[in-house]
Amino acid sequence: MVLVIRSRLKLMFFSLLSIGTVAYADVSERDADDYFEFLARANNYSPLEHAGSHGTIGIGIGLGLAGYETPSNSEAMRELWRGSGKAAEENKTPEGRLYIPRLQVHKGLPWSVDVGMGLGQDRLTGANLMSAYSQWTIFEGFALPALALRGGYNRLMGLASTDSSSVTVDAVASLGFLRIFTVYGSYGAGRHQSQVRLGETFGTSLVMDGTSEGKIDRVMFRRSKSLGMQLQILPPFCVATIESKQTGDGPVSMLAKISAGM
C-alpha cells in the first residue's frame, strides 16, 4: 500500500513538473512578435545630432543613455536576453524600461558630409549594440533651417540565441535659435532583420509550433520619427542633447547624450 501511494505521488510530481516546463518553454507567436519589435527599437540607432554639417575640422565624442520599453511578461525576453554564466535571478526580464549606455563619436568631412559610430552594451548580458552612420547636409544657411539625409547600419551582437541588424534611412531637419538651442526632427524608414535560434541544440529551452529546435527569422520594415533638442552648455565645445524616438507603432524610446568637441 505504501509503495502504491509513493508511486502515485511520484507520478503526480513529474506530471506537474512536465506541465510547468512546457508552459515555460513554449513561445507564442505574439510573444515572438513582441520580442522582434523590441529588437527593432533597440537597434534603431540615433546619433542625437542635428542636420547641420560639422565641417572638416569638426570632431566630437559623447556619452549617451538610451531607454527602451521592454515587452511585459515575455518568455522570449527571459530566456534569450540573458547573461551567460550569471545567477538565475539576474537573468530575468527587466521591468519597464531597459537602459543601455552608449559611447558615440562623430567626424566632419568635406562636401558637407559627417560620419559617426556608436557602441552600447547591456550591463546584464554583455550584449553589444554597434552602429555607424553617414549624413549628407543638403542645405544650411545663417538663421535658416538645415536639411540632411542620413543612412545608418546597426547590429546587435553577443547574445547566444539572437542576431539582429538594421539598415535605416532618415530625412533630418533642424533649426538653431538664441545661439545655444537647436531643435531637430527626423522621419525615415528601416529594414530590421532578426533571427532567434530555438531548441536545446542552440542552448535554449524555447520551442515553438511543437518543434524542439529550429530558427525564427523575421524581416520587418518600420517607419520611424524623432524629435530632439540640443543645448550648448559651453559653446561651442560642450553640448547636451535629449531626444524622443518612435519606431513603428511601438512605445517611444528616450535618448540623451553629453558630448564634447566641435
Helices and strands: which structural class?
A: alpha+beta
Biggest sheet, open or closed, and with what strands and sense?
Answer: 10 strands, antiparallel, barrel
Taking all Cα atoms into account, the compactness measure Rg is 23 Å
Low-pLDDT sequence parts = 1-25, 83-94
SSE arrangement, N to C:
HHEHEEEEEEEEE
- Give the integer mean of the pLDDT values: 80
Distance between the termini: 85 Å
Strand content: over 45%
Number of H/I helices = 3
- Helix % is 10-25%
The global form is: elongated
Walk across the major sheet and give the strand order. 1-2-3-4-5-6-7-8-9-10
- Please provide the count of β strands: 10
In short:
17% of the residues lie in helices and 53% in strands. By secondary structure, the chain is α+β, with helices and mostly antiparallel strands.
